[in-house]
From TrEMBL, chain A:
It comes from Aspergillus caelatus. Belongs to the actin family. ARP4 subfamily. It is found in: Nucleus. This is Actin-related protein 4. Component of the NuA4 histone acetyltransferase complex, of the INO80 chromatin remodeling complex, and of the SWR1 chromatin remodeling complex. Its main location: nucleus.
UniProtKB/TrEMBL annotation, chain B:
This is SWR1-complex protein 4. It comes from the Eukaryota. Residues 340-355, 363-385 have a biased composition (Low complexity). It comes from Aspergillus caelatus. One of its GO terms (biological process) is chromatin remodeling. The keyword Glycosyltransferase does not apply. Belongs to the SWC4 family.
Length: 472, 589
């Protein structure tokens, strides 16, 4: 075999070393074994914190949603820009993501579990060896993903955690844009990742991101939620308030548009959970709303524009049958044009629904998806632009909005009428949601990748700065 | 009594189609999992539901004979790494050398290797060989740098930085240009940050490429001087030395412009491209058709003498021989190679008759005399049929291309051939002259579109050209005669003068007699010659007219007229020459 020829496509170049792939996001953290097709462990990155019996306790995973404990507050270790803010908690959440489902709890130190109590005066002999055994990732290489604009400090910190806290024998930090491109089988692509907190556009060339082309804007899924909130506030028959399920004890069916008839649960102030808990649960309802109702105007042209036959696009959208949605308190309504309006600002900043209370400032045109792509392309060499346009990879759970890829395609065709525009967006929901995790799973199970790991030995030799050198 | 017998008796044709076969009883197999009694109740037509047990698809039988091969988690090292990281993967036991994906081994070997160490050092990791690095030039030394590579634009540090990047990113220029972030004197900048920071030049990819190629080419040249380079190396060297950053930049600007065309521009380009495609396709088609036509025209040129096939007799002979050849071939193929050659006497009559029959059937061979009665009857029938046919008016005839021929040459021929035959004169010289005349008139030797009319006009043209040539010949002849005569006259006059000077009275009578008629003749002949020339010119003009296909109806007439004229002139010229001959004879006397 000629070593300069890569393995043919039919040839399976995999060699699984039971590596763990960890893809932390703002909304969820995905973890699983490399070589599998979906992450085994999918937990929300949010964690709950409450005090009980004077002790601070933490809740991870889906348990956060379940019980409205008194004083339970919900936090996220990640910042809105996708960079970790609270490293201690991030470490804990991440660790939970793989220890809960993948590696299992480690057996405790046999010297301390009470079974092997030693007589006083006898010193424990192999303490050091035992200590390494305790670390949760002692025999699994770890591949982690990060956003394309992660600063060097954060990368080094991540590496430090992986090496020193988790004791992984080998580590690699890959950009999630690159991984998403790998997941769709491309080494060069323009990755459009629509996440919960961010939309990012990452040009990838030969498996490496082009840093000058990386663009991101905060118009992610949470922004859409805020738009929906704004819409519900200004709803025409009456403003709609979202009451999460935990506050409702019973409800009766009402006709569309009629006020809800539900019995509510009330919590005395000392027993009530924090407001952040309610926000989180409201967010769940909103994501249901996004899945069921919200639709992107498929184009061509903006929603506010006029179609070729003189009918404005809004009229056309209005004539489409509406979609009903029932809120947890039983209130239900059919959403017509409004369901297009809430996402229109992803493409047309002027169409944003104004809401002074929203934590998101009203978007600028430069933050919209077409502009991001345009800027990303302008940041890379002109020779590869057509190639990137022919390999646009759409990933991220928020890209599952109905009609999103159609609209994106229309916008790109309008901006770049010359070159061939081709969007590759997997139709499979799981592949779209876990795009970058799947790419990591592919990458970490490749035989040729095993030379790229940063081993413990190398880390000890060079320190955490090696991550900048190796994970390019 | 069978149906066949009845048919036989009633003289009916044999059965058109075979009788349907007896219905075969389809015995469906009773599927498993259903009792015979129950199955019998289903009747003949089983309902279209699958009756089968719910069970897993079994493994094929041969698989159960195989022994399960044990796998185990085995540590391995990767030679592409320098740190000797030990990772663990599943490996088939006793098959440590080869990865699982390669073919199975014999069992004996497996057992032997069972107790092997997990990985002996000589076993290379399968994927280590894919660790390929791009070839970058050797790093320069200080001396080399100072002597050959110094540049005003690039500092030594920056060059080093560039070379590092190139090596790190394996010459992926897109990535290199993206990551290029050279900080000049990082230490200085930290110590006196308030000091003037040197303007950080923006290096474009072209700058970097130009610098790198220069360095690489120089290093290559240092290693092997260009005269000793191998061809590949020399090519590389040339390429690198000839890199023009300006041009590359201009190209990229153009590429960016091209990328940012408006929709209208793209549409227009598409339309134009479509148009171009259409035009070229049309042209191709036209050329192909034309070539085909020419090839068809060129095919009939045969080297052999075809005159023997021009007569009907010759043709029938040809047919005979062909048939004979055909038949003998057939016979041979039936009889096999050793088949006895049939006697010619037995064979000849049959093809003869055949030939005659076939000839009778083909209407184009009208001249063949209808020898037998059948043919005569057919001819009579034809005649009758012809009476029923309505006659066409001349305009209709012209429209349908119906032509009447006084005499048809046997066989098929091309009109263009006939027209071409005209251009072949008896002598080679004459043919050349004809060709020259046609060339002067810009009439192609082979007609482009040999329709009936064009052929006729061509015929006329050739005829007049021939006449013209004749006339010219005569004119030349006459002119030369005139010259001879004039020369003779002068000679004579001179002689006469001399004689006069010697003996004036004696010759006088003779002198009075002669000069007048000769002069007369001379003027006459010159007049005739000039007339001939004029007519020839006129002819040429009319010829030009035919070439342009603006043939007036009268041109033929004028041609004829000129022809008549020229013949008369010819006659007169010959008469004149006769007379002049006489006169010269007389003079000699």
């Amino acid at each position: 075999m000629n070593p300069s020829i890569p393995p043919s496509t039919a040839e399976y170049g995999g060699d699984e070393v039971s590596a763990i792939v960890l893809d932390p996001g703002f909304s969820t953290t995905r973890a699983g074994f490399a070589g599998e097709d979906t992450p085994k462990s999918l937990i929300p990155t949010y964690y709950g914190k409450y005090t009980s019996e004077g002790q601070e306790r933490l809740i991870f995973s889906d348990d956060v949603f379940v019980t409205p404990r008194p004083g339970l507050s919900v936090h996220n270790p990640m910042g809105r820009d996708g960079i970790v803010e609270n490293w201690d908690m991030a470490e804990k959440v991440w660790e939970y993501s793989f220890t809960s489902r993948l590696t299992g709890p480690r057996p405790g130190n046999p010297f301390q579990n009470g079974l092997n109590d030693i007589a006083d005066g006898e010193l424990p002999t192999e303490m050091e060896g035992v200590e390494t055994e305790e670390k949760p990732l002692a025999d699994s290489p770890l591949l982690m993903s990060e956003c394309g604009w992660n600063p060097a400090k954060a990368r080094e910190k991540t590496m430090e955690i992986a090496m020193e806290k988790w004791g992984t024998p080998a580590f690699y930090l890959a950009r999630n844009g690159v991984l998403a491109a790998f997941a769709s089988g491309k080494a060069s692509a323009l990755v459009v990742d629509v996440g919960a907190s961010n939309i990012s556009v990452t040009p990838v060339h030969d498996g490496m991101i082009l840093k000058r082309g990386v663009q991101h804007s905060p118009l992610g899924g949470d922004y859409i939620s805020s738009q929906i909130r704004a819409l519900l506030k200004t709803n025409t028959p009456q403003p709609i308030t979202i009451t999460p399920h935990y506050l409702i004890s019973s409800k009766t069916a009402v006709d569309a548009g009629q006020p809800s008839q539900a019995k509510y649960k009330t919590f005395p102030p000392e027993k009530a959970p924090d407001a952040s808990y309610r926000t989180l649960l409201e967010e769940r309802t909103l994501s249901e709303f996004k899945e069921c109702v919200v639709q992107v105007w498929p184009g061509p042209n903006k929603l506010s524009a006029t179609g070729p036959n003189g009918i404005s696009n809004e009229e056309v959208a209005k004539s489409n049958p509406g979609r009903p949605f029932e809120f947890p308190d039983g209130y239900n309504q059919v959403f017509g044009l409004d369901r297009y309006r809430v996402v229109e600002s992803l493409f047309d900043a002027k169409a944003a629904i104004p809401d002074p209370e929203s934590p998101f400032p009203s978007p600028t045109q430069a933050q919209t998806v077409p502009e991001l792509i345009k800027n990303a392309l302008n940041g890379v060499d002109v020779d590869i632009r057509p190639h990137l346009l022919a390999n646009v990879v759409v990933t991220g759970a928020s890209s599952l909005l109905h009609g999103f890829t159609d609209r994106l395609n229309q916008e790109l065709m309008q901006t770049y009428p010359g070159p061939r525009v081709r969007i590759s967006a997997p139709g499979n929901t799981a592949e779209r949601k876990f795009g970058s995790w799947i790419g990591g799973s592919i990458l970490a199970s490749l035989g040729t990748f095993h030379q790229m790991w940063i081993s413990k030995k190398e880390y000890e030799e060079h320190g955490p700065t090696i991550v900048e050198k190796r994970c390019k | 009594m069978a149906a066949a017998d009845v048919r036989d008796m009633l003289d009916l044709p044999a059965e058109g189609q075979p009788r349907p076969h007896k219905k075969q009883k389809v015995v469906e197999k009773r599927p498993e999992g259903i009792t015979r009694e129950l199955y019998a109740l289903l009747g003949e037509r089983a309902p279209p539901i699958a009756i089968n047990e719910n069970r897993y698809k079994g493994r094929p039988k041969w698989m159960s004979k195989l022994r399960v091969r044990p796998w185990r988690m085995a540590p391995f090292t990767n030679e592409a790494r320098s740190d000797g990281l030990v990772l663990r993967h599943w490996q088939r036991q006793g098959d440590t050398a080869k990865p699982a994906l390669e073919g199975p081994e014999t069992e004996g070997e497996e057992q032997k290797q069972d107790e092997d160490a997990p990985q002996t050092p000589d076993q290379e990791y399968l994927f280590a060989k894919y660790n390929v690095k791009a070839r970058v030039p050797r790093r320069y030394t200080d001396e080399e740098y100072n002597r050959h590579l110094k540049s005003d634009d690039w500092s030594r540090q920056e060059t080093d930085y560039l070379m590092d990047l190139v090596e790190e990113y394996d010459l992926r220029w897109v990535v290199i240009a993206d990551r290029y972030d050279f900080q000049p004197h990082p230490v200085d900048a930290e110590t006196n940050s308030s000091a003037l920071v040197p303007a950080n030049q923006v290096r474009t990819m072209e700058h970097m490429k130009a610098r790198y190629y220069f360095v690489a080419a120089s290093m290559l040249a240092l290693e092997h001087p260009p005269s000793e380079m191998s061809e590949a190396e020399f090519d590389l060297h040339e390429k690198m030395m000839k890199f023009e950053p300006e041009r590359e930049r201009a190209r990229k600007e153009l590429a960016a412009l091209q990328l940012e065309r408006t929709a209208d521009a793209v549409r227009e380009e598409g339309v134009l491209l479509e148009e171009l495609k259409r035009i070229t396709a049309n042209e191709q088609n036209f050329i192909a058709e034309r070539r085909e036509l020419y090839s068809r025209l060129e095919v009939p040129i045969s080297v052999g003498n075809t005159t023997m096939y021009q007569s009907s007799q010759g043709l029938s002979q040809l047919l005979q021989t062909l048939l004979q050849a055909d038949k003998s071939k057939k016979r041979r193929s039936i009889l096999g190679p050793e088949g006895a050659a049939p006697s010619p006497a037995a064979q000849t009559p049959a093809p003869n008759a055949n030939a005659r029959d076939s000839r009778g059937e083909t209407p184009s061979n009208a001249p063949a005399a209808p020898t037998n009665k059948k043919a005569a009857a057919a001819a009579a029938a034809n005649k009758e049929a012809q009476q029923n046919i309505r006659t066409l008016t001349p305009s209709e005839e012209a429209r349908y291309g119906v032509q009447h021929h006084d005499r048809l040459a046997p066989g098929v021929q091309f009109r263009s051939d006939r027209a071409q035959k005209l251009t072949q004169a008896k002598s080679n010289v004459q043919t050349q002259k004809l060709a020259a005349a046609l060339a002067e008139l810009e009439v192609p030797l082979r007609l482009v579109m040999p329709t009936e009319r064009v052929c006729k006009e061509f015929e006329k043209l050739i005829h007049s050209v021939n006449l013209l040539l004749d006339a010219r010949k005569v004119a030349e002849k006459v002119e030369s005669e005139i010259r001879v005569l004039e020369a003779a006259k002068q000679e004579r006059e001179r002689k006469a003068k001399e004689a006069k000077e010697k003996e004036k009275p004696e010759v006088k009578t003779e002198q009075d007699d002669n000069p007048a008629p000769t002069a007369d003749v001379a003027t006459e002949s010159t007049g005739a010659a000039s007339a001939a020339l004029h007519s020839a010119e006129g002819q040429a003009e009319t010829a030009g007219g035919t070439e342009n296909k603006e043939v007036e109806a009268g041109s033929g007439d004028t041609g004829e007229a000129t022809a008549r004229e020229s013949t008369s002139q010819k006659r007169s010229a010959s008469v004149l020459s006769n007379t002049s001959d006489k006169s010269t004879k007389r003079q000699k006397k």
